[in-house]
Amino acid sequence: MVHVILSIDTEGDNLWADQRGRSFDNIEALGEFQTFCEGLGLRPTYLVAHEVIADEKARDTILRLEKNGNCEIGSHLHAWLTPPPYAPLDELGTYPFLHEYPQEMRAAKLERLTEDLEDVLGRRPTSYRGGRWSIEAFTMGRLESLGYAVDTTVTPFVSWIRTLGAAEGGPNCTTAPHTPYYPHSADPMRPGAMRILEVPTSHRPPLRATDGLYRWAGSALGGHRWAWSVVGRGLGVLIGKVISPNPAVTPTEGLLRVAGRILQEEPAVLNLCIHSSELVAGGAPWIREASDAKAVRQRFRDVVGFLSSRCEWRALTLSEYAREQGTSGGR
Ligand SMILES: [Zn+2]
Protein backbone atom coordinates (compact mmCIF):
# COMPACT_ATOMS: atom_id res chain seq x y z
CA MET A 1 0.00 0.00 0.00
CA VAL A 2 1.38 3.39 -1.00
CA HIS A 3 0.46 6.28 1.28
CA VAL A 4 0.10 9.61 -0.47
CA ILE A 5 0.55 12.88 1.39
CA LEU A 6 0.24 16.37 -0.07
CA SER A 7 1.85 19.03 2.12
CA ILE A 8 1.23 22.65 1.16
CA ASP A 9 3.09 25.69 2.50
CA THR A 10 0.16 28.05 2.82
CA GLU A 11 1.40 31.61 2.65
CA GLY A 12 1.21 35.05 0.99
CA ASP A 13 1.30 35.75 -2.75
CA ASN A 14 4.57 35.28 -4.62
CA LEU A 15 7.01 35.39 -1.70
CA TRP A 16 9.83 35.13 -4.24
CA ALA A 17 9.00 38.69 -5.34
CA ASP A 18 7.93 40.15 -1.98
CA GLN A 19 9.00 38.17 1.06
CA ARG A 20 7.00 40.38 3.38
CA GLY A 21 3.93 38.41 2.29
CA ARG A 22 1.58 41.36 2.20
CA SER A 23 -1.20 40.03 -0.03
CA PHE A 24 -3.19 36.81 0.14
CA ASP A 25 -5.15 36.49 -3.09
CA ASN A 26 -3.88 32.93 -3.59
CA ILE A 27 -5.54 31.83 -0.34
CA GLU A 28 -8.96 32.61 -1.82
CA ALA A 29 -8.33 29.98 -4.50
CA LEU A 30 -7.77 27.17 -1.99
CA GLY A 31 -11.46 26.25 -1.70
CA GLU A 32 -11.52 25.43 -5.38
CA PHE A 33 -8.19 23.58 -5.13
CA GLN A 34 -9.57 21.53 -2.24
CA THR A 35 -12.49 20.45 -4.44
CA PHE A 36 -10.00 19.53 -7.18
CA CYS A 37 -8.03 17.39 -4.68
CA GLU A 38 -11.18 15.67 -3.44
CA GLY A 39 -12.00 14.77 -7.05
CA LEU A 40 -8.59 13.05 -7.27
CA GLY A 41 -8.94 11.40 -3.87
CA LEU A 42 -6.17 13.48 -2.27
CA ARG A 43 -6.29 14.76 1.34
CA PRO A 44 -4.13 17.89 1.51
CA THR A 45 -2.37 19.20 4.59
CA TYR A 46 -2.25 23.01 4.53
CA LEU A 47 0.69 24.20 6.64
CA VAL A 48 -0.35 27.76 7.39
CA ALA A 49 1.98 30.71 8.05
CA HIS A 50 1.17 33.21 10.80
CA GLU A 51 0.73 36.15 8.43
CA VAL A 52 -2.12 34.26 6.72
CA ILE A 53 -4.22 33.99 9.88
CA ALA A 54 -3.39 37.61 10.73
CA ASP A 55 -5.42 38.58 7.63
CA GLU A 56 -9.15 38.46 8.33
CA LYS A 57 -10.32 37.27 4.93
CA ALA A 58 -7.57 34.67 4.58
CA ARG A 59 -8.26 33.46 8.11
CA ASP A 60 -11.93 32.82 7.21
CA THR A 61 -10.84 30.75 4.23
CA ILE A 62 -8.54 28.65 6.43
CA LEU A 63 -11.37 28.11 8.90
CA ARG A 64 -13.66 26.98 6.07
CA LEU A 65 -11.01 24.45 5.01
CA GLU A 66 -10.70 23.21 8.60
CA LYS A 67 -14.45 22.69 8.76
CA ASN A 68 -14.43 20.88 5.40
CA GLY A 69 -12.90 17.83 7.08
CA ASN A 70 -11.21 16.33 4.00
CA CYS A 71 -7.94 18.09 4.75
CA GLU A 72 -5.79 19.14 7.68
CA ILE A 73 -4.56 22.54 8.84
CA GLY A 74 -1.05 22.54 10.30
CA SER A 75 1.55 25.26 10.81
CA HIS A 76 4.40 26.79 8.81
CA LEU A 77 6.81 29.29 10.32
CA HIS A 78 8.35 32.22 8.46
CA ALA A 79 10.68 33.46 11.18
CA TRP A 80 10.87 37.08 9.96
CA LEU A 81 7.08 37.45 9.81
CA THR A 82 6.01 35.59 12.95
CA PRO A 83 5.54 37.46 16.25
CA PRO A 84 6.91 38.28 18.72
CA PRO A 85 9.10 40.67 16.72
CA TYR A 86 12.86 40.52 17.09
CA ALA A 87 14.19 43.61 15.36
CA PRO A 88 17.89 42.61 15.13
CA LEU A 89 16.95 39.89 12.64
CA ASP A 90 13.34 40.56 11.51
CA GLU A 91 14.21 44.01 10.20
CA LEU A 92 17.42 43.24 8.34
CA GLY A 93 15.57 43.07 5.04
CA THR A 94 16.87 39.50 4.63
CA TYR A 95 14.86 36.37 5.34
CA PRO A 96 16.52 34.74 8.31
CA PHE A 97 16.09 31.09 9.13
CA LEU A 98 14.46 30.31 12.48
CA HIS A 99 17.71 28.59 13.48
CA GLU A 100 19.51 31.95 13.34
CA TYR A 101 17.40 33.40 16.17
CA PRO A 102 18.33 33.05 19.85
CA GLN A 103 16.72 29.96 21.35
CA GLU A 104 14.24 31.93 23.47
CA MET A 105 13.03 33.75 20.33
CA ARG A 106 12.66 30.47 18.44
CA ALA A 107 10.60 29.11 21.32
CA ALA A 108 8.49 32.29 21.51
CA LYS A 109 7.75 32.38 17.76
CA LEU A 110 6.84 28.68 17.70
CA GLU A 111 4.52 29.17 20.68
CA ARG A 112 2.86 32.22 19.21
CA LEU A 113 2.21 30.53 15.85
CA THR A 114 0.82 27.44 17.57
CA GLU A 115 -1.40 29.35 19.99
CA ASP A 116 -2.74 31.77 17.40
CA LEU A 117 -3.61 28.87 15.09
CA GLU A 118 -5.25 27.12 18.02
CA ASP A 119 -7.40 30.24 18.56
CA VAL A 120 -8.56 30.09 14.95
CA LEU A 121 -9.09 26.33 14.72
CA GLY A 122 -10.34 25.59 18.22
CA ARG A 123 -7.70 22.85 18.52
CA ARG A 124 -3.91 22.65 18.49
CA PRO A 125 -2.22 22.19 15.13
CA THR A 126 -0.28 18.88 15.11
CA SER A 127 1.72 19.09 11.87
CA TYR A 128 4.55 21.49 11.03
CA ARG A 129 6.98 22.59 8.36
CA GLY A 130 9.75 25.12 8.95
CA GLY A 131 9.88 28.08 6.55
CA ARG A 132 12.85 27.92 4.19
CA TRP A 133 13.29 24.30 5.42
CA SER A 134 14.72 25.44 8.76
CA ILE A 135 14.89 22.66 11.33
CA GLU A 136 17.39 21.71 14.03
CA ALA A 137 17.40 19.86 17.34
CA PHE A 138 16.14 22.73 19.51
CA THR A 139 13.16 23.46 17.26
CA MET A 140 12.27 19.77 16.94
CA GLY A 141 12.30 19.53 20.74
CA ARG A 142 10.01 22.55 21.09
CA LEU A 143 7.62 21.13 18.49
CA GLU A 144 7.42 17.91 20.47
CA SER A 145 6.67 19.79 23.73
CA LEU A 146 4.02 21.88 21.97
CA GLY A 147 2.20 18.65 21.10
CA TYR A 148 3.07 18.33 17.43
CA ALA A 149 2.68 14.76 16.14
CA VAL A 150 4.54 15.25 12.88
CA ASP A 151 7.13 17.42 11.16
CA THR A 152 7.75 17.51 7.41
CA THR A 153 10.74 19.84 7.07
CA VAL A 154 13.43 17.27 6.20
CA THR A 155 14.30 17.07 2.49
CA PRO A 156 16.44 13.92 2.09
CA PHE A 157 19.46 14.08 -0.26
CA VAL A 158 19.32 17.90 -0.26
CA SER A 159 21.61 20.42 1.41
CA TRP A 160 20.34 24.00 1.66
CA ILE A 161 23.73 25.27 2.81
CA ARG A 162 24.00 27.55 -0.25
CA THR A 163 20.64 29.18 0.54
CA LEU A 164 21.37 32.18 2.73
CA GLY A 165 19.34 33.52 5.65
CA ALA A 166 20.69 36.55 7.54
CA ALA A 167 24.18 35.08 7.52
CA GLU A 168 23.93 31.31 7.76
CA GLY A 169 22.96 28.66 5.26
CA GLY A 170 20.06 26.22 5.45
CA PRO A 171 20.14 22.71 6.89
CA ASN A 172 22.06 19.82 5.40
CA CYS A 173 19.54 16.98 4.99
CA THR A 174 21.68 14.87 2.65
CA THR A 175 22.16 12.06 5.16
CA ALA A 176 18.62 12.00 6.61
CA PRO A 177 16.47 8.87 6.17
CA HIS A 178 14.11 9.13 3.21
CA THR A 179 11.28 7.18 4.83
CA PRO A 180 9.39 8.34 7.97
CA TYR A 181 11.29 8.10 11.27
CA TYR A 182 11.29 9.26 14.86
CA PRO A 183 14.24 11.67 15.11
CA HIS A 184 17.11 11.70 17.58
CA SER A 185 16.78 14.52 20.13
CA ALA A 186 20.34 15.69 19.42
CA ASP A 187 20.08 15.58 15.62
CA PRO A 188 16.84 15.61 13.63
CA MET A 189 18.65 14.18 10.60
CA ARG A 190 19.07 10.77 12.21
CA PRO A 191 16.66 8.30 13.80
CA GLY A 192 16.21 8.24 17.56
CA ALA A 193 13.46 8.03 20.13
CA MET A 194 11.54 11.33 19.98
CA ARG A 195 7.75 11.12 20.00
CA ILE A 196 7.28 13.43 17.02
CA LEU A 197 7.32 11.65 13.65
CA GLU A 198 9.40 13.04 10.79
CA VAL A 199 7.76 12.50 7.40
CA PRO A 200 10.44 13.62 4.93
CA THR A 201 9.45 15.14 1.61
CA SER A 202 9.90 12.81 -1.37
CA HIS A 203 13.07 14.41 -2.77
CA ARG A 204 14.98 11.64 -4.59
CA PRO A 205 17.93 11.32 -6.95
CA PRO A 206 16.68 9.90 -10.28
CA LEU A 207 18.37 6.52 -9.72
CA ARG A 208 18.31 4.52 -6.51
CA ALA A 209 21.85 3.27 -7.26
CA THR A 210 23.27 6.75 -6.57
CA ASP A 211 21.59 7.32 -3.18
CA GLY A 212 24.71 6.17 -1.34
CA LEU A 213 26.94 8.48 -3.35
CA TYR A 214 24.72 11.48 -2.56
CA ARG A 215 24.75 10.58 1.14
CA TRP A 216 28.50 9.98 1.22
CA ALA A 217 29.30 13.29 -0.51
CA GLY A 218 26.66 15.12 1.53
CA SER A 219 27.95 13.91 4.88
CA ALA A 220 31.48 15.03 4.01
CA LEU A 221 30.76 18.29 2.19
CA GLY A 222 27.04 19.12 2.42
CA GLY A 223 27.64 21.49 5.33
CA HIS A 224 30.29 23.56 3.53
CA ARG A 225 28.93 26.28 1.28
CA TRP A 226 31.68 26.49 -1.30
CA ALA A 227 32.56 22.82 -1.38
CA TRP A 228 28.90 21.86 -1.82
CA SER A 229 28.46 24.45 -4.51
CA VAL A 230 31.04 22.57 -6.59
CA VAL A 231 30.32 19.00 -5.49
CA GLY A 232 26.52 19.30 -5.39
CA ARG A 233 26.46 20.71 -8.91
CA GLY A 234 28.97 18.13 -10.11
CA LEU A 235 26.79 15.31 -8.77
CA GLY A 236 23.80 16.86 -10.53
CA VAL A 237 25.61 16.87 -13.86
CA LEU A 238 27.19 13.43 -13.50
CA ILE A 239 24.42 11.36 -11.97
CA GLY A 240 21.33 13.54 -12.20
CA LYS A 241 19.92 16.26 -9.97
CA VAL A 242 17.81 15.41 -6.96
CA ILE A 243 14.19 15.66 -8.11
CA SER A 244 11.84 17.90 -6.14
CA PRO A 245 8.44 16.32 -5.46
CA ASN A 246 6.80 19.68 -6.20
CA PRO A 247 4.43 19.58 -9.20
CA ALA A 248 4.92 23.34 -9.68
CA VAL A 249 8.62 22.95 -10.49
CA THR A 250 8.97 19.34 -11.64
CA PRO A 251 7.30 18.19 -14.88
CA THR A 252 5.31 14.96 -15.00
CA GLU A 253 8.26 12.85 -16.13
CA GLY A 254 10.28 13.68 -12.99
CA LEU A 255 7.29 13.25 -10.69
CA LEU A 256 6.59 9.81 -12.14
CA ARG A 257 10.22 8.86 -11.70
CA VAL A 258 9.95 9.77 -7.99
CA ALA A 259 6.62 7.94 -7.67
CA GLY A 260 8.13 4.91 -9.42
CA ARG A 261 11.03 4.89 -6.96
CA ILE A 262 8.64 5.09 -4.01
CA LEU A 263 6.68 2.06 -5.19
CA GLN A 264 9.85 0.05 -4.44
CA GLU A 265 10.28 1.44 -0.92
CA GLU A 266 9.07 0.14 2.42
CA PRO A 267 7.22 1.93 3.86
CA ALA A 268 6.07 3.51 0.60
CA VAL A 269 5.14 7.13 1.33
CA LEU A 270 4.86 9.71 -1.42
CA ASN A 271 5.01 13.18 0.18
CA LEU A 272 4.36 15.76 -2.53
CA CYS A 273 4.91 19.37 -1.55
CA ILE A 274 3.97 22.72 -3.05
CA HIS A 275 3.31 26.34 -2.03
CA SER A 276 -0.27 27.62 -2.04
CA SER A 277 0.85 30.54 -4.21
CA GLU A 278 2.15 28.15 -6.88
CA LEU A 279 -1.43 27.05 -7.53
CA VAL A 280 -2.53 30.33 -9.10
CA ALA A 281 -1.38 32.38 -12.10
CA GLY A 282 1.12 35.05 -11.01
CA GLY A 283 1.71 33.29 -7.68
CA ALA A 284 5.37 32.48 -8.36
CA PRO A 285 7.93 33.60 -10.95
CA TRP A 286 7.51 30.22 -12.73
CA ILE A 287 3.70 30.27 -12.59
CA ARG A 288 3.01 33.39 -14.64
CA GLU A 289 0.03 32.49 -16.77
CA ALA A 290 -3.22 30.61 -16.31
CA SER A 291 -1.72 27.94 -18.58
CA ASP A 292 1.15 27.39 -16.08
CA ALA A 293 -1.32 26.86 -13.24
CA LYS A 294 -3.30 24.51 -15.47
CA ALA A 295 -0.16 22.49 -16.22
CA VAL A 296 0.40 22.03 -12.47
CA ARG A 297 -3.11 20.60 -12.10
CA GLN A 298 -2.44 18.23 -14.99
CA ARG A 299 0.72 16.96 -13.23
CA PHE A 300 -1.36 16.13 -10.15
CA ARG A 301 -3.74 14.16 -12.40
CA ASP A 302 -0.79 12.41 -14.05
CA VAL A 303 0.68 11.31 -10.70
CA VAL A 304 -2.67 10.03 -9.45
CA GLY A 305 -3.30 8.25 -12.77
CA PHE A 306 0.15 6.62 -12.59
CA LEU A 307 -0.40 5.40 -9.03
CA SER A 308 -3.87 4.11 -9.80
CA SER A 309 -2.49 2.07 -12.72
CA ARG A 310 0.42 0.61 -10.72
CA CYS A 311 -0.56 0.04 -7.12
CA GLU A 312 -3.06 0.36 -4.33
CA TRP A 313 -2.74 3.76 -2.76
CA ARG A 314 -4.41 5.75 -0.06
CA ALA A 315 -4.31 9.47 0.68
CA LEU A 316 -3.81 10.66 4.25
CA THR A 317 -3.14 13.98 5.90
CA LEU A 318 0.13 14.25 7.81
CA SER A 319 -1.40 13.76 11.25
CA GLU A 320 -3.59 10.91 10.02
CA TYR A 321 -0.43 9.17 8.82
CA ALA A 322 1.38 9.85 12.13
CA ARG A 323 -1.60 8.53 14.09
CA GLU A 324 -1.61 5.31 12.09
CA GLN A 325 2.10 4.82 12.68
CA GLY A 326 1.65 5.44 16.40
CA THR A 327 -1.17 2.92 16.75
CA SER A 328 0.46 0.29 14.55
CA GLY A 329 3.59 0.29 16.71
CA GLY A 330 5.59 2.03 14.00
CA ARG A 331 8.24 3.13 16.47
ZN1 LIG B 1 7.15 29.28 3.35
CATH superfamily of the largest domain: Glycoside hydrolase/deacetylase
Count up the domains.
2
Reported for the largest beta sheet, the result is: 8 strands, parallel
Level-1 CATH class name of the largest domain = Alpha Beta
Which value, in Å, is the CA radius of gyration? 18 Å
Principal-axes shape call: globular
Instruction: Count helical runs.
Output: 12
Mean pLDDT: 95
Number of strands: 10
Features:
binds zinc ion; TIM Barrel; 12 helices; eight-stranded parallel beta sheet; 331 residues; single chain; alpha/beta; two-stranded antiparallel ribbon; 40% helix; 14% strand
What does this entry show, briefly?
With 331 residues, the protein is of the alpha/beta class.
Topology:
Layout: E1 2-10, H1 25-28, H2 30-40, E2 44-49, H3 50-53, H4 56-68, E3 72-77, H5 87-90, H6 103-121, E4 127-130, H7 137-145, E5 150-151, E6 183-184, E7 187-191, E8 197-198, H8 211-221, H9 225-239, H10 252-263, E9 269-275, H11 290-310, E10 313-315, H12 318-327
Parallel strand pairs: 1-2, 1-9, 1-10, 2-3, 3-4, 4-5, 5-8
Antiparallel strand pairs: 6-7
This protein binds zinc ion (ZN).
Q: How would you describe the overall organization of this protein?
A:
By secondary structure, the protein is of the alpha/beta class. Helix 7 links the parallel strand 4 and strand 5 (150-151). The protein has helices spanning 25-28, 30-40, 50-53, 56-68, 87-90, 103-121, 137-145, 211-221, 225-239, 252-263, 290-310, 318-327, and strands at residues 2-10, 44-49, 72-77, 127-130, 150-151, 183-184, 187-191, 197-198, 269-275, 313-315. The model has no long low-confidence stretch (mean pLDDT 95). Helix 8 packs antiparallel against helix 9. The strands form two sheets. Strands 1, 2, 3, 4, 5, 8, 9 and 10 form an eight-stranded parallel beta sheet that branches. The two termini are 19 Å apart. The protein folds into two domains: 2-204 and 244-327, TIM Barrel; 207-241, no CATH class. The protein is globular, with a radius of gyration of 18 Å. Zinc ion binds next to loops.
